[in-house]
Input
Amino acid sequence: MASKREKTSPCLKNCLFAFLSGGAVCLLGQAMKDLFALLGAEEKTAYSLVAVTLVFAAGLCTGLGFYDKAARVCGAGLFVPITGFSNAVTSPAIEARCEGAVTGVGSEIFKIAGPVIVYGNIASVIYGVIYYIYLCFAG
Output
């Protein structure tokens, strides 16, 4: 009975919007990298500047309320790893700001992103050890 009343998701439309918006974020990142390189930054520095700029922009857009509105339209495409991570860190902090800087923002800022950071670091250590063992025995 519940499945009959359930609203179906427009899968093709959602996939198209996610593809286009994610591609737009990546295109913007590439354009910024080229701009930073044109302004004289070395390639590695330009990549770092792009990452910092995208994280700042996504955090600012989250704080101003633009990111959530755009995400409703664009879907998963805006959660390209770096902008999505910035949004995941910023959103809980904004919601908890009325509780104070330490007990609110400080304790809530990594509520969503914290497990990602922890498990990402653990996975990188495990993969690094496996790769090291492979290099020792294969080469």
Observations:
- The chain has a mean pLDDT of 85.
- The first helix runs from residue 2 to 5.
- The two ends are 61 Å apart (CA to CA).
